Structure formats: C-alpha cells, structure tokens
C-alpha cells in the first residue's frame, strides 16, 4: 500500500490535483481520506462559539483517530470514516465505510504539520498557489458551500486563514517531496506524480503474480 499526503493552503487547488491524479489511475486502485472528516466534533457548542472555531489550527484535528484509521487500512481492514458538516460543526451519526486499496491519498491543509502522520506518508506533496488566487477560491467556496456572507468570509480569512497559513501551513512546504505550483493546472507535475503511483501499482501487480513451475524434462 502506498500512502500519499497532499497538503497546501486553503484554496490552493488540492482537491483538483487529487481528482486529476485519480483520472490517470485504474478504478478502485485509489482511496481518498479527507482531513476535513477528522475535525473534532463541536456540535454541542452554541452558534456564537462555533463561529469562533479555528479550523486552520492543528489542534482542530483529531489526529489520533486519523492515524489509527490509516494503520487499520494498511493492515487490509476497512474503517468507518466520520462525516463532518461545516454548517453544524458536528459529526454525523452516520459514517462512511472505507475499504483498503493499493493507494491511499490523505488530503488537507494541515496534513504535513503533524510529525506522526508525516512518518506514515510514503510521498509528501505540497500544492502551492498565489495568495490572491487562493483568496478568490475561498470567497467562492465559503459563500456557495458553507453559507457565509462576503463580509464573514473576509473576516474569517483575516482572523484565521491567513495567520494560520503563515504559521502552520506554509512552513510545511519544506517537508514535501513534490511541490506542485498552480494546483490542478500544472499538468507536468500531475503527470509525474501519477506516473510514480502507476509504477508502484504495476510493481505490486508483478510481485503478486505466481510463478508457474517449469515441469519440462531436460
């Protein structure tokens, strides 16, 4: 099993990179584990307190559960992955059954910030993008998907996203084996990463072949 971590700032194009990589690979060969599924359950908090949650700080993630789930998958056992809602800031009672596969992609802004998780990753990728481009994507996403107003998005960016990016996310670029500028638009970087993954899949397939004995008599 090959475990790949794909990190980068909010709005950098991580999800697009993941989708483009998957397009290059055999169906059923890849499983994606989003960091967002492992945010701590804050559904018990008031609306006022939920608005103050810093989703860009490493302490917002339940790392122990994420790491344990990766270990379970690596042992060829399925997991029950949490479902998290940004609207309610709570985990759903339902879970998603995730089966082990040849390639696991762990994707999220803080993936490279945790030393224990980094040790589990065979390939570490950082998706880089210009700050203005990231902000434009964040504005669109938070208004469309998370129900925030334009003013709320800007305040959240100023108070949480930008300072946390500079403190916790941008510095993790130094841990990356591959840096992908321009996100999903960087066809060359995506092709290189996809080729490396396909090579691993093909090697595993060759290793799994049973060599038939040669019964021919001299």
Which SSEs are present, and which pair or pack?
Elements: E1 2-8, H1 14-23, E2 30-34, H2 47-50, H3 63-74, E3 79-85, E4 90-98, E5 103-107, H4 115-118, E6 123-128, H5 131-145, H6 150-169, E7 178-181, H7 187-207
Parallel strand pairs: 1-5, 1-6, 2-5, 6-7
Antiparallel strand pairs: 3-4
Termini Cα gap = 41 Å
Instruction: Give the amount of beta strand, in percent.
Output: 15-25%
Corresponding CATH superfamily? P-loop containing nucleotide triphosphate hydrolases
Question: What is the CATH architecture descriptor?
Answer: 3-Layer(aba) Sandwich
Structural class: alpha/beta
Structural account:
The structure is a single chain. This protein is an alpha/beta fold and 218 residues long. It has one domain: P-loop containing nucleotide triphosphate hydrolases (Rossmann fold), CATH 3.40.50. It has seven helices and seven strands. It has a five-stranded parallel sheet with strand order 2-5-1-6-7, with helices on one face. It has a two-stranded antiparallel sheet with strand order 3-4. Strand 3 and strand 4 form a beta hairpin. Helix 5 packs across helix 6.
């Amino acid at each position: 099993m090959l475990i790949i971590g794909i990190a980068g700032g909010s709005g950098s194009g991580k999800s697009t990179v993941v989708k483009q990589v998957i397009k290059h690979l055999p169906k059923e060969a890849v499983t994606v584990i989003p960091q967002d599924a492992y945010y701590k359950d804050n559904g018990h908090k008031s609306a006022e307190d939920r608005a103050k949650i810093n989703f860009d700080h490493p302490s917002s993630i339940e790392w122990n559960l994420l790491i344990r789930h990766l270990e379970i998958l690596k042992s060829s056992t399925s997991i029950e992955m949490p479902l998290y809602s940004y609207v309610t800031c709570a985990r759903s009672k339902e879970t998603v059954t995730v089966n082990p596969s040849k390639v696991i992609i762990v994707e999220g802004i803080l993936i490279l910030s945790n030393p224990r998780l980094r040790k589990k990753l065979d390939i570490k990728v950082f998706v880089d993008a210009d700050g203005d481009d990231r902000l434009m994507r964040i504005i669109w996403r938070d208004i469309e998907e998370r129900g925030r107003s334009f003013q709320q998005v800007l305040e959240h960016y100023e108070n949480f996203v930008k300072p946390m990016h500079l403190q916790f996310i941008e510095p993790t670029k130094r841990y990356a084996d591959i840096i992908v500028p321009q996100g999903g638009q960087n066809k060359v970087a995506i092709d290189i990463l996809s080729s490396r993954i396909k090579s691993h899949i093909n090697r595993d397939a060759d290793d799994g072949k049973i060599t038939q004995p040669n019964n021919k008599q001299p």
